[in-house]
User: Which sequence fits this backbone?
């Protein structure tokens, strides 16, 4: 590494400044990595910290990156390792949803997301917007109240006059329906089912 | 790194974790739920400024200023001219970055409709201007109005005769005076125009049906997005005539929160000599939590 720049990258990109190239990669992938971390971590500040750390690690080890492969899954892999390390630091053994086997399933879901039509992450989210409109009103309201307005299940139950468990079911079934809808759109985009 | 809560599954995913998933199928199902959970969180927390700050922090962390930051005008005789060109391009890029096209009117109105179909209680301050301010001094000009989809609303105000409340639970309209709270006037909502006529056009409850109004505007008016305004608001103008029960809307200006679709301000110019109010202005105060019984006829 010379002058803080990964040597492998400097040797392969000719006249383009490595930092400039890396900035493009960060801009292209930051939203996706953030979404990946939001799947696992509730605290937004921790998500920001992990995202920062993932890209800084990527910069440090950029000479290990195989440029024949897409950058997104590679930096996501770094974020996954940071998540696992973070879990170990936390010293909690009951974090079942953050083991390697589970994260493999998550990685598959993100790979499928990449096959949806659209160049940017926001364009991929357009599919989710379309699928949201297709939900039944009860599920859509529950999801919007929870995710858009930040209401907890108890508050949603109070506002809608339904039970706490019913709200959780609406959210679960809504999410399941959204996933089915997005998978169907991925298949329609030509992704393997 | 502090404040993490990995050990506490999100409460909405508790159901998926009971019983604790141990088989690959159970784990897979929970991760699929979590995937959508993360996508939804990402969808509803998009913020261009925060995104730029995020990228800026990463670039600061790698010790470089980013695109164009290493250019030196002394390397080549034509470098100064090239520098100016690059600078011009950067300024142009920056301006292009700053320019965000206004949302399409149909998309914005659909978002507003969706927001106002949500089963939440939204409170507005409503101010009315009368055609002739001298003719009806007893009519209050300012109302506190809470709206909920399904023709449910609660109006609270004070006049020179004391407090006054009116409401509707979706089917029955009721009025209650603070002077005689035990005497509640009630009638089917369908008869509201008759009441308004008796009150000389002072109580057009059609304005309290935002959901219906939002549906009618694109159908009967020319609706145009004027531009962005303030902090995340979009100004929309509607010109045309909409019959609102027994009143008529001539034009309306809406300030819509782009991210949520919530109407934060609504100015209605009314038409028709019979109609007492010449202008009705809704100003959004925020969401509140009302017990559904608040909309019902007082007992």
Assistant:
């Amino acid at each position: 590494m010379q002058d803080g720049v990964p040597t492998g990258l400097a040797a392969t990109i000719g006249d383009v400044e490595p930092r400039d190239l890396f900035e493009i990669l960060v801009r292209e992938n930051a939203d996706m990595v953030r979404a990946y971390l939001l799947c696992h971590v509730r605290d937004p500040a921790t998500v920001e910290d992990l995202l920062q750390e993932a890209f800084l690690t990527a910069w440090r080890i950029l000479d290990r990156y195989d440029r024949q492969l897409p950058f997104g899954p590679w930096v996501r892999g770094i974020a996954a390792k940071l998540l696992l390390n973070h879990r170990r630091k936390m010293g909690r053994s009951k974090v079942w949803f953050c083991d390697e086997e589970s994260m493999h399933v998550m990685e598959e879901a993100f790979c499928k997301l990449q096959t949806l039509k659209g160049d940017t992450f926001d364009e991929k989210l357009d599919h989710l917007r379309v699928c949201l409109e297709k939900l039944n009103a009860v599920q859509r309201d529950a999801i919007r109240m929870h995710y858009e307005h930040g209401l907890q299940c108890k508050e949603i139950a109070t506002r809608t006059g339904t039970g706490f468990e019913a709200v959780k079911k609406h959210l679960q079934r809504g999410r399941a329906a959204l996933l089915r809808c997005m998978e169907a759109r991925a298949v329609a985009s030509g992704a393997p089912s | 790194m502090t404040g993490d809560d990995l050990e506490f599954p999100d409460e909405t995913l508790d159901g998926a974790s009971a019983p604790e998933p141990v088989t690959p199928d159970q784990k897979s199902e929970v991760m699929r739920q979590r995937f959508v959970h993360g996508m939804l969180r990402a969808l509803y927390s998009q913020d261009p400024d925060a995104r730029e700050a995020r990228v800026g922090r990463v670039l600061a962390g790698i010790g470089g200023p980013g695109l164009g930051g290493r250019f030196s005008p002394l390397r080549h005789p034509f470098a100064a001219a090239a520098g100016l060109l690059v600078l011009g391009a950067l300024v142009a890029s920056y301006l292009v970055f700053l320019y965000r096209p206004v949302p399409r009117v149909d998309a914005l109105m659909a978002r507003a409709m969706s927001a106002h179909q949500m089963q939440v209680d939204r409170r507005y301050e409503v101010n009315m201007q009368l055609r002739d301010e001298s003719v009806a001094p007893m009519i209050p000009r300012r109302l506190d109005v809470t709206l909920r989809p399904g023709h449910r609303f609660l109006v609270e105000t004070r006049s020179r005769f004391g407090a006054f409340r009116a409401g509707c639970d979706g089917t029955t309209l009721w009025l209650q005076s603070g002077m005689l709270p035990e005497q509640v006037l009630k009638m089917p909502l369908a008869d509201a125009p008759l009441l308004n006529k008796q009150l000389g056009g002072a109580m057009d409850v059609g304005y309290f049906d935002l959901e219906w109004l939002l549906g009618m505007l694109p159908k009967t008016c020319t609706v145009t997005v004027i531009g962005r305004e303030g902090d995340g608001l979009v100004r929309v103008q509607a010109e045309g005539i909409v019959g609102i029960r027994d009143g008529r809307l001539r034009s309306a200006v809406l300030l819509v929160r782009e991210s949520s679709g919530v109407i934060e301000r609504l100015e209605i110019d009314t038409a028709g000599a019979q109609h007492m109010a010449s202008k009705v202005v809704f100003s959004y105060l925020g969401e509140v939590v009302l017990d559904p019984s608040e909309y019902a006829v007082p007992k």
About this structure: Chain A has a mean pLDDT of 83. Chain A touches chain B through 83 residues (CB under 8 Å).
